[in-house]
Amino acid sequence: MELLPGQVAVVTGAASGIGLAMARRFAAEGLKVVL
Q1: Out of 1, 16, 19, 33, which residue is the most buried by the measure of CB atoms under 10 Å away?
Q2: Domain range for residue 25?
Q3: How far apart are CA 13 and CA 4, in angstroms?
Q4: Is residue 26 packed enough to be buried (19+ CB in 10 Å), middle (13-18) or exposed (0-12)?
Q5: Residue 4 is inside which H or E element, if any?
Q6: What is the distance, to the nearest Å, from the Cα of residue 29 to the centroid of all Cα atoms in its chain?
Q7: What is the dihedral of CA 2, 24, 19, 34, to 10 degrees?
Q8: Sign of CA dihedral 11, 18, 13, 24
């Protein structure tokens, strides 16, 4: 999947584990993250 800056990622379970890692990676890639 191609991630583009400005897209919005909705991440559930972002308090720890895989969800947290995904939220951090998405933010680093320039996506807006909703937890």
Answers
A1: 33
A2: 1-35
A3: 22
A4: buried
A5: none
A6: 8
A7: -80
A8: negative
In Å, how far from its chain's centre is CA 35? Answer: 8
**pLDDT tens figures, 1-35:** 687 888 999 999 999 999 999 999 999 999 999 99
Predicted local confidence at residue 34, as pLDDT: 96
Q: Residue 6 and residue 8: Cα distance in Å, rounded? A: 6
Q: CB atoms < 10 A from the CB of 23, how many?
A: 21
> How many structural domains is the chain composed of?
1
Structure tokens at 30: 């320039």
- Amino acid in position 25: R
**DSSP conformational letter for 24:** H
